[in-house]
Every structure is written in structure tokens, then in C-alpha cells.
Amino acid sequence: MAGEPQADCLFCKIVSGEVPATVVRETDTTVAFRDINPQAPTHVLVIPKAHHPDAASLAAADPQATADVLREAGAVAADEKLDETGYRVVFNTGSGAGQTVFHAHAHVLGGRGLNWPPG
Ligand code: 5GP
Ligand code: ZN
């Protein structure tokens, strides 16, 4: 069923605590934790606690949780003092775009200059 935990999903295991993570924020519906392989001085992932394979699936199934993820991305940026210098929120979608974990997640990246367009 949409949203149910998946036994083989790394981020569901982070939600359950089975896999440890450096959690920086948590709400009833979201978890934000530091990326294990940071691509910028601040690189935090914000995920819905419910399992959805990508951002569009999440938005279709649960608009409120989608809004919660985006609000928390902004809160992470404020916590990390990125909101004045600028930051990027990225949802890689599909393996061709670099998605490797198929549980929706927003990358919050900042703390260095960010080129546009990204690679
Ligand atoms: P994607 O490539 O799917 O857009 O993003 C997945 C992200 O998850 C990558 O940036 C990767 O470094 C991160 N990641 C993969 N495994 C782990 C892990 O076990 N813990 C944490 N904190 N991040 C992970
Ligand atoms: Zn999952």
C-alpha cells in the first residue's frame, strides 16, 4: 500500500532507527539528516516518514506531507544559516538523473557557490 514501510528501503530503515543517521530535525511526518557523502558544506536530506518512491509520487499521494518536506527544507536552511546566502533544494527523479534511493527525498545543499545549470 502507498506509504507503507518497505523492508528493503534504506530510508525506511533510517525512519525506524534500524540504520543510524545524524538527524538534524524531525517532525511527525518528516526526518532531516546529514547526507553520508556530502556534496557541499551543508548537505541534508529531508524525507517523508511514509514510503513513496519519488517526489511526484509523494505529491500525488500526500500533498500535506509534500508541503511538510518543503517547509522542513526551508527550516534546515534557516538552521544552517543558508537562507541569506542561498541554497538549493533538489529532488533527483529516476536513475538517469542520479536517483539511487527510491524513497522520496529533498537534498538541501548550500555553504558554497552553486553553479547553474547543475550537471
Ligand atoms: P539520490 O542519489 O537518490 O538523489 O540521493 C541519495 C543520497 O543518499 C545520496 O546523496 C547518498 O550519499 C545518500 N546516502 C546513501 N546511503 C546513505 C546512508 O546510509 N546514510 C545517509 N545519511 N545518507 C546516505
Ligand atoms: Zn522507504
TrEMBL record:
Q: Which Pfam families match?
A: HIT
Q: Coordinates of motif Histidine triad motif in the sequence?
A: 103-107
- Residue ranges crossing the lipid bilayer per the database entry: none
Looking at the record's lineage, which domain of life comes first?
Bacteria
Which InterPro entries does the UniProt record give? Histidine_triad_HIT, HIT-like, HIT-like_sf
Write down the species: Streptomyces endocoffeicus
Concerning PROSITE patterns, the annotation shows: HIT_2
Boundaries of every HIT domain copy? 10-119
Read off the PANTHER family from this record: HISTIDINE TRIAD HIT PROTEIN
Q: Please give the name of this protein.
A: Histidine triad nucleotide-binding protein
